[in-house]
What we know:
55% helix; 3-stranded antiparallel beta sheet; two-stranded antiparallel sheet; Arc Repressor Mutant, subunit A; 2 domains; alpha+beta
Amino acid sequence: MDDLGRVFDAVADYFTLLSEPMRLRILHCICQQEKTVSQIVAETGATQTNVSRHLNSMHRAGALTRRKQGNHIYYGVGDETLVAICRGVCIHIASRLESGVEGQTGLIALARELETDAVLPVAGQQEVAGMSTAAGAARGA
């Protein structure tokens, strides 16, 4: 396999983290501050077993941080670029859905809320349209 093939494989694996709706919900839940497993369960409405399974997968992939304090385990964002990609795609999809479907006025409001939920850039990344992303240069920023 050539170098480009290895890069494409790694990118596909990276995007796999966003392929589960529950993982998107979890990422949205903790994108502003770290939270306990119980808080994440309450905010997502999922079972603790389901949330814990996704949290462990995302942590192993480096997308989330995890720390223990007393009897609680806190999860936070470990990869700000993943949040920026997720936010950008959510905004794009919400805009497309609203423009094509009547009665979806809440989607644009959600997209605007997501745009204002800025995440601080990670060192070495560029600020692009209010979002932190290492891919900004590739997008013409």
